[in-house]
Amino acid sequence: METKRQETAKPEGKKLAKVVRLGAVECWTRPADIFARVEYDGTRLSIVGVIGPKSDGDARGGCGQIDPAEETFTNYAPGWDAEKVAEFARIWKRWHLNDMRAGCEHQRANWPSPSEQVEVVTYKLTTDALIAQNRVRSRIAQDMTALGKCELTAEERELYALPYTTTQTPDADGPTAGRYEVKTREQKAIGWLGADEHPRGILGKPCEVCGYKYGHAWLTEEIPAEVIAWLSNLPDTDTTPAWV
Predict the structure, then answer these.
(1) Distance in angstroms (rounded) separating the CA atoms of residues 145 and 6
(2) Which of 33, 41, 128, 179 is 20 to 30 Å from 82 at the Cα level?
(3) What is the SS3 string spanning the chain?
(4) Does the global pTM surpass 0.90?
(5) Residue 243: is it exposed, middle or buried by C-beta count within 10 angstroms (0-12/13-18/19+)?
(6) Half-sphere exposure (Cβ direction) of 30: Cα atoms closer than 13 Å
(7) Where are the domains of the chain?
(8) Phi and psi dihedrals of 38, rounded to 5?
(9) Nearest to 22 by CA among 47, 57, 56, 55
(10) Is residue 36 over pLDDT 60?
(11) pLDDT digit string (tens) for 95-143?
């Protein structure tokens, strides 16, 4: 992607930097505290977490982009409860790195989620098709050497042009009929697929409203003031973590 740009120029807002402790969660043989660092520079929001940070830089549980709503809490830190943890997890997932949006405001509001998974089937030429294709290539080389020219039939031209692999479903009535077999089947997010790779792929697809092509640059989505205010009001950690 290209260098990020903001959709519209907006003044920087309130800055925020704090560490919070949500409580203790089940972690292997005994509970471990779960911490998160919340940073907002007036434009960009970053939230990272860690479960059971250790003094050697390791952790008893996960770290980085974790989901506290998926953890089993044995107790909550002062000022926290299940409802607050769920809201924190929602904000975290929705607004983390808001300056790295691949889609414009219209695409974010109206298009399917870029994380939607689809199956991508990759096909490869069959052994018989490869042998036939190599015969055509050999004849081209021989005729060009001996005659300086080569004339191919329509079928030979089609066979010569076939790629070794493709994500396009072979046409039962076209030149690819019987020429391909399945190579791989993969689950991929539509945000990383172009329309030439899958019908639901949105990478490079233009917005119907503003024409912006999805994934062309990193865009900044402004965070609502109430979200920053909510994060600002979270209780600071009551225990100093080894790191977060």
Answers:
(1) 58
(2) 41
(3) CEEEEECCCCCCCCCEEEEEEEEEECCCCCCEEEEEEEEECCCCEEEEEEECECCCCCECCCEECCCHHHCCEEEECCCCCHHHHHHHHHHHHHHCCCCCECCCHHHHHHCCCCCCEEEEEEEEECHHHHHHHHHHHHHHHHHHHHCCCCCCCHHHHHHHHCCCEECCCCCCCCCCCCCEEEEEEEEEEHHHCCCCCCCCCCCCCECCCCCCECCCEEEECCCCHHHHHHHHCCCCCCCCCCCC
(4) no
(5) middle
(6) 1
(7) 2-98+223-232, 117-192
(8) -115, 125
(9) 47
(10) yes
(11) 999 999 999 999 999 999 999 999 999 999 999 999 999 999 999 999 9
Q: Other C-beta atoms within 10 Å of 187: how many?
A: 8
- Report the relative pairing of strands 63-64 and 2-6 from DSSP bridges: unpaired
Query: Whole-angstrom Cα distance, residue 66 to residue 27?
Result: 14
Give the pLDDT confidence score for residue 89 in this predicted structure: 98
First to last CA, the chain: 29
CA distance 93 to 88: 9
Q: What is the pLDDT of residues 176-195, one digit of tens each?
A: 889 999 999 999 999 999 99
Residue closest to 116 by CA, chosen among 200, 203, 47: 200
In one-letter notation, the amino acid at residue 183 is K
For the beta carbon of residue 32, count every other beta carbon within 10 angstroms: 21
Q: Indicate the residue type of 154.
A: A
200 close to 118: Cβ distance less than 8 angstroms? yes
